[in-house]
Write a structure and sequence with these properties.
Blueprint lengths: L1 H9 L6 H50 L4
């Protein structure tokens, strides 16, 4: 959040076109980094949910094997 705040505060303060392009590039890079971090967080959430599903399936499988009669 701090990076976006400081970048937002500096927008429009460039003295020439190159400075404006540099500021815009910095904001785009920060946005890309933030999106990548969000993707990483969501990947971790999905991985945790997959582990829960696999544990539930293993428990159900063990229960069904106990209930099998020979």
């Amino acid at each position: 959040t701090g990076a976006f705040t400081s970048a937002g505060n500096s927008l429009g303060s460039a003295r020439d076109i190159k400075g404006s392009i540099d500021q815009n590039t910095q904001v785009q890079v920060q946005t890309g980094q933030t999106v990548n971090e969000l993707i990483g967080v969501m990947n971790n959430v999905v991985t945790a949910q997959n582990v829960q599903v696999l544990q539930r399936l293993a428990a159900e499988s063990a229960t069904s094997q106990v209930m099998t009669y020979d």
